[in-house]
Amino acid sequence: MSAVSIPELFAFDDLIDDDEREIRDTVRAFGNEKLRPHVAGWFEEAHLPARDLALELGRLGVFGMHLEGYGCAGLSATTYGLACMELEAVDSGLRSFVSVQGSLAMFAIHAFGSDAQKDEWLPRMAAGEALGCFGLTEPDFGSNPAGMRTVAKRDGDDWVLNGAKMWITNGSVADVAVVWARTDLAEGARGIRGFVVPTDTPGFSAPEITHKMSLRASVTSELVLTDVRLPESAILPGVEGLKGPLSCLNEARYGIVFGALGAARDCLETAIDYAGDREVFDKALSGYQITQTKIADMALELGKGFLLAMHLGRRKDAGGIRPEQISLGKLNNVRESIEIARTCRTILGANGITLEYPVIRHANNLESVLTYEGTSEMHQLTIGKALTGHDAFR
């Protein structure tokens, strides 16, 4: 009896249509041909050739692919999720690169920006000619963004921003930053507002964060704003308060629901291939019961995660998804994916800790995915609040 692949076991392709399959396969081929041969080196060197990659990914059409107009493809949320899965099957840093560009920076401008802001930035960002970042998290405020200390104050007709943001993907290579700041209520503004900040504005700097052991094939930065003076036209006119940044985060979290499964799938396929070739006591490692039970359990969790992702994708396309449902997907699929990566590492033994195989790289990356865009604990409390009606955050 010949072995079946994981997608065949679950008949995954029966759940997607021809157009979705074609785009998924196109992104997968791009990843295998253009990214996979280099990604272990990028991870080891803690370097990502962001500018060159941006142009290639722009030509591929994945930046803002789920947005309408301005050079964006206007594809379905499910199609975007499948693309995220294929990008993260190569490396979480690459999916994050695309996600921050499209689901955070571009989405914020697309959803809440003025016509002038959209015209200026979105076509260039879709083409990969301009890169964006999203400044919400601060050194002391991650899970509680309402406590942010970055402030924007009126000075005549201008706004002046002061503060710092932390753990900002693409920050050091971005041309534009969407920065969220607390405004002065006494002067007529309402709470937290978003600003479109060209990164060449005087007073803006973005030192890169180094010495990371996770997401090494990704640019991570601090944003420092020192008397950054912006015109009134820099403010995002379409939203006030935390609704703006949180809606953007839901877009990014949705991509993770699919993306994390790509990393898990790559680990599991690697472990199955390795176990079939590796002989232990004159027998293939995959022929032992304990190996097969590990593989079976991991495949089951991967399949369940994909079914959940597809359900959420269809709900999002129908316009009926709720934030707590995205939390269900992010919590489950990242938690199971990191467990799959760790278990696959045990099958590879000592070989599992080398960059010759992708498993330890995925496991390290998923440590970051587990806590960014909302920690597991925050998603648990979001789900708990939805089920009980009680807010346990405070």
Short description:
This protein has 394 residues and is α+β, with helices and mostly antiparallel strands.
Describe the structure.
It comes from Williamsia sterculiae. Keywords: FAD, Flavoprotein, Oxidoreductase, Transit peptide. InterPro entries: Acyl-CoA_Oxase/DH_mid-dom, Acyl-CoA_Oxase/DH_mid-dom_sf, AcylCo_DH-like_C, AcylCo_DH/oxidase_C, AcylCoA_DH/ox_N, AcylCoA_DH/ox_N_sf, AcylCoA_DH/oxidase_NM_dom_sf, Glutaryl-CoA_DH_mitochondrial. It holds the Pfam family Acyl-CoA_dh_1. Residues 241-387 form the Acyl-CoA dehydrogenase/oxidase C-terminal domain. This protein has 394 residues and is an alpha+beta fold. The protein has 3 domains: 6-126, Butyryl-Coa Dehydrogenase, subunit A, domain 1 (Orthogonal Bundle); 132-234, Beta Barrel (Butyryl-CoA Dehydrogenase, subunit A, domain 2); 243-388, Butyryl-CoA Dehydrogenase, subunit A, domain 3 (Up-down Bundle), CATH 1.20.140.10. It is 53% helix and 14% strand. The protein has helices at residues 6-10, 18-45, 50-60, 77-90, 92-112, 115-126, 243-277, 289-317, 323-348, 359-371, 376-388; strands at 68-69, 72-73, 132-135, 151-155, 158-169, 176-183, 192-198, 204-205, 220-231. Strands 3, 4, 5, 6, 7, 8 and 9 form a 7-stranded mixed β-sheet that branches. Strands 1-2 form a two-stranded antiparallel sheet. β1 and β2 form a beta hairpin. α4 (77-90) packs across α7 (243-277), α4 (77-90) packs antiparallel against α8 (289-317) and α7 (243-277) packs parallel to α9. The termini are far apart. The model has no long low-confidence stretch (mean pLDDT 94).
